[in-house]
Amino acid sequence: MDTQNPSAPPRGSSPDPGAIDTTVSRSGVVHVNVRHTSHYTVIGNHLAQHRKLSLIAIGLAVYIQSLPAGAQVDIKTLTARFPEGEIRIAAALRELEEFGYLERTRKRLPSGQMVTLTVSYNQPGVSPTSAPEAPVAMTESAPVYVPPAPPAQDPQQLDPEEHRPAAAILADLRRHEPRLLLSERDVHRLAPAVTAWLERGAAPEAVRRTLTASLPPDLRHPAALLAHRLAELLPPPLPAVPSGPAPLQNCEACDRAFRSPEPGRCRGCATSGALLAA
């Protein structure tokens, strides 16, 4: 005999708004559930009600889990799909990596092209008992099929020279706050976000103060907190520095000083000269 679910609505029934019993709860949400028969994705409450992930990260995880195998999930594609900017999308992806919902690794194809392989886990830490096909890893160019694998142990490959100052700031945080002890992999993940701060004129000490100030007493996931702060508190680009006044020049006609980028005559002598020529 099949096990019945007494909370499930009858199949094919449509909710009657006038029949909703609002006396059950005088406040809070009242659910009107209709059974899905197509075009739906099963999402665990461990994701939908995650205590540490941001709303952007939860929504992005739901979107990625709803995609077909081989869909593109690189930052450029996601930024074109959603109104959130590149910084917020990148931070959300790092959050999902931090809690095991995504795994991204850099691989070299036989052709020599470097691609990013992304594996999405709908339930981190649980191995599938049976699967008709291997999980699909999306790349920046084409889908690549890979077998299930544990989270990558090697740090993400980055340009060491480009992100060296940012990596030094992140690695040095533990000297100022012991709870901000980051793994080498976390340093590599967060370095591009810190580089964005430095490129916008933020001093290393200002970045350090922002990342170490007012930490929560029950800090459990320092990398996720730093990723959130780096994305949400990113300063705007510095405005263009106005050029200074033109240098002083001596008029070739009257020897009076005037400001001009090039030597020549002052405005009065230039005007009188033009009138005489006319």
| Low-confidence spans | 1-9, 130-157
What is the helix/strand order?
HHHHEEEEHHHHHEEH
Tell me what the CATH architecture of the domain at 41-123 and 134-153 is.
Orthogonal Bundle
User: Kindly state the mean pLDDT as a whole number?
Assistant: 78
Number of helices: 10
The helix/strand class is: alpha+beta
Q: Shape from CA axes?
A: elongated
Rg, please? 30 Å
State the end-to-end CA separation: 110 Å
Count of β-strands: 6
CATH topology of the domain at 41-123 and 134-153: Arc Repressor Mutant, subunit A
Largest sheet: 4 strands, antiparallel
The share of residues in extended strands comes to 5-15%
Give an overview of the whole structure.
The chain is elongated, with a radius of gyration of 30 Å. It has 278 residues and is α+β, with helices and mostly antiparallel strands. It has helices spanning 45-48, 55-66, 75-81, 86-98, 164-171, 173-176, 184-199, 204-212, 222-232, 267-277; strands spanning 102-108, 114-120, 136-138, 144-145, 248-250, 257-259. Strand 1 (102-108) and strand 2 (114-120) form a beta hairpin. The longest helix is centred in the last third of the chain and has 16 residues, at 184-199. Residues 1-9 and 130-157 have low confidence and may be disordered. Among the domains are: 41-123 and 134-153, Arc Repressor Mutant, subunit A (Orthogonal Bundle); 164-213 and 222-232, no CATH class. Strands 1-2-3-4 form a four-stranded antiparallel beta sheet, covered by helices on one side. It has a two-stranded antiparallel sheet with strand order 5-6.
